[in-house]
Amino acid sequence: MPKISLILSEKGSVVHQVTQGATVLEAAKIMNDHQCGSLVVMKDDKLVGIITERDVLSRVVAEQRDPASTPVVAVMTHEVAVCGLETKIEEARTVMRNRRIRHLPVVDKDHKLLGMISIGDLNAFRLNGQEQTIHFLHEYLYGETV
């Protein structure tokens, strides 16, 4: 069964992050600049939370808070679900589905941040596998195409 390490080896280990003292406005700008839907929140090289687009909408915009003066720590998700390199891809998908989350930081046994996977990464991995299966079945049924 394929593991998260396979996705990270293809995707890379870049994780966009922010400190807990940053403002929500600063976090939103970073998400926009990097076209990502979440940032890990770090304190002294330790993962302490995650802020997502959903957090900004529900905890800042909907509550009419000023994003320029609201610190990330006040609205971030503190209980972060994580996975490891050896986590099976389908297990990660189940965690995301059951917790209704779209981003999962990847950590080692010492909780050092190694990367980030998204539901989009998992879906792309599945789609790629399905496309390969269809290609092989097509070749089997109709012969190799040039």
What does this structure look like?
There is one protein chain. This protein is an alpha+beta fold. The chain has one domain: CBS-domain (Roll). Helices cover 46% and strands 18% of the residues. It is built from six helices and five strands, in the order H-E-H-E-E-H-H-H-E-E-H. The strands form two sheets. It has a three-stranded mixed β-sheet with strand order 1-2-3. It has a two-stranded antiparallel ribbon with strand order 4-5. A hairpin with a 5-residue loop joins strand 4 and strand 5. The two termini are 31 Å apart. The mean pLDDT is 89.
Topology at a glance:
Layout lengths: L3 H8 L5 E3 L4 H11 L3 E6 L2 E7 H9 L10 H4 L13 H11 L3 E5 L5 E6 H24 L4
Parallel strand pairs: 1-2
Antiparallel strand pairs: 2-3, 4-5
List keywords for this structure.
3-stranded mixed β-sheet, 146 residues, two-stranded antiparallel sheet, alpha+beta, CBS-domain
In short:
The radius of gyration is 18 Å and the shape is elongated. The protein has 146 residues and is of the alpha+beta class. Helices cover 46% and strands 18% of the residues.
